[in-house]
Structure prediction request, 666 residues.
Amino acid sequence: MTAAASPAPLWQPGPDRIAAARITRFQAWAADRYGAPAEGGYAALHRWSVEELDTFWAAVADWFDVRFTTPYTQVLGDRTMPGAQWFPGATLNYAEHALRTAEDPARAHEPALLHVDETHEVTPVSWTELRRQVVALAAELRALGVRPGDRVSGYLPNVPQAVTALLATAAVGGVWTSCAPDFGARSVLDRFQQVEPVVLFAVDGYRYGGKEHDRTGTVAELRRELPTLRAVVHVPLLGTPAPEGALEWADLTAGTAGTAATEATRPVFEPVPFDHPLWVLYSSGTTGLPKAIVQSQGGILLEHFKQIGLHCDLGPDDRFFWYTSTGWMMWNFLISGLLTGTTIVLYDGSPGFPAVDAQWAIAERTGATFYGTSAAYVMACRKAEAHPGRDHDLSRVKCVATTGSPLPPDGFRWLHDEVAEDLWIASVSGGTDVCSCFAGAVPTLPVHIGELQAACLGTDLQAWDPQGRAVIGEVGELVVTNPMPSMPIRFWNDPDGSRYHDSYFEMYPGVWRHGDWITLTDRGSVIIHGRSDSTLNRQGVRMGSADIYEAVERLPEIRESLVIGLEEPDGGYWMPLFVHLAPGAALDDTLRARVKATIREQLSPRHVPDEIIEVPGIPHTLTGKRIEVPVKRLLQGAALDKAVNAGSVDNLELLRFYENLARERH
Prediction:
């Protein structure tokens, strides 16, 4: 698909909106101070941001008034990837910036956090109270012997205590890492055992889908299997007493006279080097141990200032809601909303409880101005024929953003028709690997159906063919040819850097290859076709699985689908389509014919599968992404324990179907 395929934009920002956007003000200011182009709009600003990378990032640090405790000697020392050196010489602290609004007497008592659970009651936490708790907890962490570089872990849902624990960890220079409590013990240990935490913050359980889920047994197992723990902090969401030997959350955040004395004698916020680790995030780990991805305090601070303050256009008058759990990078990204003085909304509960439109109800209740969710949730609402704009007052929502997978064209149309016609729809794409977006939201650009608006500032995003040539208007590998501050400083337990190198830099030396198929259009927008490692390649033509899902799942009988392409030993190619049917639907010859006709008409005859097979369900990662590569490995004859890491899958039993199918075929 190229620009010609959908000439008219679905949405266009008006002149007032463009003039008021922070990115417009930033461009005028950077033109005056840093030599950015004053004319030419976003395209000119983006070109400057990648061609004058050092100047651009210096301007970002200046615009957002980053507090360097000691100044930097240059913006970029070594710019080689992997291993680029950002802001050498500088020291700072992420948590200090996240809590800066508490210093403003006019805003200190406004809410920093709005916490919502499945009752949909809203509980605010003010900037003053959040800072008080962080200061108290940071002092207690220091008293427990937590030193810069020590790992602090959280087995917590999306609740204010998790935010406090992250910020207190960052304040003392510790390294935060978290998992959501719906992860089983094995999944958590696959992650936490790699990084050897000294403190564990853990809930006794959580509420989801209208039920209480006890986690005390899992926490006991984590304590037994994490020998490096010096302290366990009990967070009693279900009201149970602390188990033996655990500390009480309330005691550690009360703030005693001793804490105040400590604050007077030493800084609350430890100044750390720019590249000091802030947190460890994890890849999904479907085919082995999850990669433990380390990102820096300074790199995240600058990247998130840019992304949240310029691309998402968020500031002190906004309320930022993203549906996420603490096991997904979007939670870390959401917390960074505090950097721009924005109130963040923490929803802890099921995405569709008590009804499919639950998230829209929360956006309404909290007055969210920017609401982020998954493309899958948007499509589920469309399929359920929800009417959020009719049933909820969403007048404050100026942007709905989606990620997790590409938003199909029907999703764009549905948001436009069912939420608001004057709605900025931001389909964004990035990765846990950078805890940010490569392409996505630009408040001053039009939105075209099925497209991400543009590559982000400071990101030299290109589509490359196998020979390493940049292509426009045709499918290529997503590459980033210049360093980004939030790229991993390293992987944990990767002493020679080989796992890091092999993950991104093996195909094109010195250039980040992300593993997505994309098309860059001639107007600068981006179309995502799916993962390149699970790409379908039939008769020499490469196709993205996302295009097939989008076509097939328009049919009301198909709840979800999975397509796999297998190179056969005899040189043939087998491409089955697995379908999970809606209740009451039957996979008969009529439905098979409709599926094939839909694919043929909307895509091409080449996209039509060899077989359509009904399955009991489609397997996902713990963060809700369809699992394609392990299913492909199973169908190629790999044993289940070799094809997939059991702890990374939402329902392991579903994979046995594919294992049995492979046995029948071989």
